[in-house]
Design a protein that fits this description.
It contains 25 helices and eleven strands. It is an alpha+beta fold and 730 residues long. A hairpin with a 2-residue loop joins strand 8 and strand 9.
């Protein structure tokens, strides 16, 4: 075995890489980005047009200022707000501070006149604003008695970034001790228990360093930390667990070198195919034109590839050094319990396969039924902890000003000529009057809705000579809302960002053009969310097709069967459907809020179904490969399907359960997150792995294998010959 012969060279090389990575990895935190990233949506095109033509700033911090007694126009209130904002006025990169006093916009004052809000506009992108958030927030210190809350996109994403880093530290602090105890129970010895933990540290550290270097060529999302941590800990430990378990088994009747060699030829091959199937699932994320998904794909593929490299090279080298010392320092008397338990389960299931298979499949389908009522939404203030300042600020805005007032639908209208052309102004007036009659609309802000007393003809006449407009408010509106052939209209709905009425209003506005020669583009939080969801889920069927087809082909190569891969794909689909349903039941409908300590947002976060599919599909195939690889080994020897299934579960049942327990423990650590998206991710992964390792692999697989008998292993002779000739199978 090469890895045994050159074990010190292998160990030394990995040690050097690890030390270099340990120095580099901490630098990753300062290079990660917030949000989804830009995509080719209508909303993004509208934003780009606004920035190009109207110098709209992307980096804007919203500041909510209030006093329990004083009113907004009291001199003391005005002086306090001016003094507070003056602390950031002269900072480099601050373009402007906007208040009711500087703009004259009375809509910035609450009905009770005790609260107002303003904006700190900065140079640069949203991510630039996020980077400067704490610098600016620390300078905004209101006088005693006044309350200031920072909110809006910059504050929300800055808080998400900070929470993601805190979640990473907390989840690792929770998961490592739990996993160590679990490994001690599984192996019964200290050396065998510590080795997977050590490999996980190596994998996660090298992955973080690798992703850091990738930030020089592409933007990477802050949430890559979570996926790299989860997969790095979970998969590396699972794969190491598989190798060590087989090595200890081989060591009972072989010398160390032969034991390592046979382990890598069998369990190592299973790790190779498992890793490839997991990479296939994660690579589906590359299909989506969003930085967020691309980052998760980069992080996921990188961590799995590094896990495979470590487990297939470093682990056998270390095992070659340890040899029988792997069993030293026993802490529990049961390192290798009888396998008769798993053999007995398999045989009992196969005696009555239909009585087992039908109830299990019905249960999975019933568990998934809430998914039929899925409602998707984007991350915003409501995904933050209830005591988070940006969330408190946003909720105060909605409470004091109205849910729709703080997040208008932004309509960007581009004429074929001058926007102030009389026909365009007339068409805009008629359109605005019609939209304002919609019961879902609170008000409209545009150059033709300044005063109800002014009619269409008067607006047309007034804008024929824009330099001679007698009304100051009209001049200010013109400067703010029109630039050349582009005009801006803000439609304020009566309902909040993600309310059904607001979403329906966005769709209706898209289908109500101002005039044939005026192009409408919609943006704003609601429009952006709907465009994002539409684009994401336009790609999702292609992702599913890619992952399913490539996984099917890989399993066909591994098992020389065209039937087993179909069964594996169907069982995976049922597991994922069940998990989707459970997540809707828990997080969308708000069940188990008290137990899991969260406040339901009324929707599932938009990225969750896609991310979970790509991760869970690959992870579930790991256990399928572990189990069926051992079944196939026996079937090739005996040609007895029933006996092979019993033998396979006997040899892998405890292993699969143990590996699943490790992943579940790592996933559960993520449920301690203060961010509801991360919490839902942890619950989804934990539930998926639990269902897969218990109901599916232990009950459903043996039952269906028994029902299908030797048909499981069928493949056309011509295909089998191709596989063998191509040496694609062993």
């Amino acid at each position: 075995m090469v890895m045994v012969k050159y074990r010190w060279l292998v160990i030394g090389s990995w040690a050097l890489v690890f030390l270099l990575a340990a120095v580099t990895a901490p630098r990753l935190f300062g290079e990660l980005q917030a949000g989804f990233g830009r995509a080719n949506t209508e909303s993004q095109k509208a934003l780009d047009l606004l920035r190009e033509r109207m110098d709209e700033n992307e980096a804007v911090l919203t500041v909510v200022f209030s006093h329990p007694v004083l009113e907004v126009f009291d001199p003391e209130f005005q002086q306090a707000m001016a003094m507070t904002l003056s602390a950031v006025d002269q900072l480099p990169g601050i373009v402007n501070t906007v208040t009711v006093y500087s703009s004259g916009n009375l809509n910035l004052v609450s009905p009770d006149r005790h609260t107002t809000y303003g904006f700190v506009e900065m140079v640069g992108s949203l991510d630039d604003g996020v980077d400067r958030y704490h610098e600016i927030r620390d300078l905004l210190k209101p006088p005693e008695g006044f309350d200031l809350l920072a909110t809006g996109g910059i504050a929300i994403f800055a808080e998400l970034n900070e929470a993601a880093e805190e979640d990473l530290r907390r989840s690792e602090a929770v998961s490592f001790p739990l996993v160590l105890v679990a490994l001690a129970i599984i192996f019964g010895t200290i050396i065998a228990s510590l080795m997977p933990i050590f490999m996980a540290v190596v994998v996660v550290t090298i992955t973080m360093a690798s992703v850091f270097f990738l930030t020089y060529v592409t933007d990477v999302s802050i949430f890559v930390l979570n996926i790299a941590s989860f997969l790095g800990i979970g998969i590396s430990i699972d794969y190491t667990l598989l190798i060590i378990s087989r090595f200890r088994e081989e060591l009972e009747y072989r010398d160390v070198s032969d034991a390592v060699g046979n382990t890598m030829a069998t369990a190592g091959r299973a790790v190779l195919f498992s890793g490839i199937t997991t990479i296939v699932g994660l690579s589906g994320l590359f299909f989506l034109p969003f930085m967020f998904f691309r980052s998760l794909g980069i992080g996921g593929v990188t961590v799995v590839a590094i896990s495979m490299a470590v487990v297939l090279t470093l682990v056998p080298a270390v095992l070659g050094y340890l040899g029988h010392r792997i069993n030293r320092f026993r802490v529990l008397p049961f390192g290798s319990p009888s396998r008769g338990f798993w053999n007995g389960i398999a045989r009992r299931v196969m005696r009555h396969p239909l009585l087992v298979a039908i109830p299990v499949m019905v249960f999975l389908l019933l568990l998934g039924t809430p998914f039929l009522g899925l409602n998707l939404g984007a991350p915003w203030a409501s995904v933050l902890p209830t005591d988070s300042e940006p969330r408190l600020g946003w909720e105060k805005l909605e409470r004091e000003f109205g849910a729709g007032e703080v997040a208008p639908i932004v309509v960007v209208a581009q004429a074929q000529g001058d926007f102030l052309d009389s026909k365009v102004i007339g068409a805009l007036y008629d359109w605005s009057q019609k939209i304002s009659e919609d019961p879902r609309v609170s008000r409209i802000e545009s150059i033709v809705t300044l005063d109800p007393a002014i009619g269409k003809a008067q607006y047309q006449q007034m804008y024929e000579s824009p330099d001679q407009i007698p009304i100051p408010a009209a001049k200010e509106a013109l400067d703010e809302l029109v630039s050349g052939d582009v005009g801006l209209v803000r439609v304020f709905p009566k309902t909040g960002l993600f309310a059904p009425d607001t979403k329906a209003l966005v769709e209706d506005l898209k289908n109500k053009p101002i005039a044939p020669n005026v192009q409408l583009l919609l943006t704003g939080a609601t429009a952006d969310m709907q465009d994002t969801i539409s684009l994401m889920y336009r790609y999702f069927p292609w992702i599913i097709a890619y992952v399913v087809v490539v996984t099917y082909l890989l399993l066909m190569v591994l098992f020389q069967s065209v039937v087993l891969p179909i069964k594996a794909v169907i069982m995976n689909a049922m597991s994922i459907f069940a998990v989707y349903g459970a997540l809707v039941f828990i997080f969308q409908e708000g069940n188990l809020e008290g137990l899991l300590r969260f406040s339901s947002t009324g929707f599932l976060e938009v990225t969750l179904p896609i991310t979970l599919f790509c991760i869970v599909f690959g992870l579930s195939m790991d256990y399928e490969v572990f189990l069926l690889s051992r079944i196939k080994e026996r079937y090739d020897e005996t040609r007895d399907n029933t006996e092979s299934v019993a033998f396979g579960l006997e040899r892998t049942g405890r292993l699969i359960t143990s590996a699943a327990m490790i992943l579940v423990l790592v996933a559960i650590a993520f449920t301690t997150s203060d961010i509801i998206v991360v919490k839902a991710f942890g619950v989804g992964i934990a539930l998926a792995i639990f269902l897969d390792a218990t109901l599916v692999r232990v009950l459903l697989v043996p039952a269906l294998m028994r029902i299908m008998g030797d048909v499981n292993w069928w493949a056309p002779n011509w295909l089998r010959r191709i596989l063998v000739r191509g040496r694609l199978v062993g």
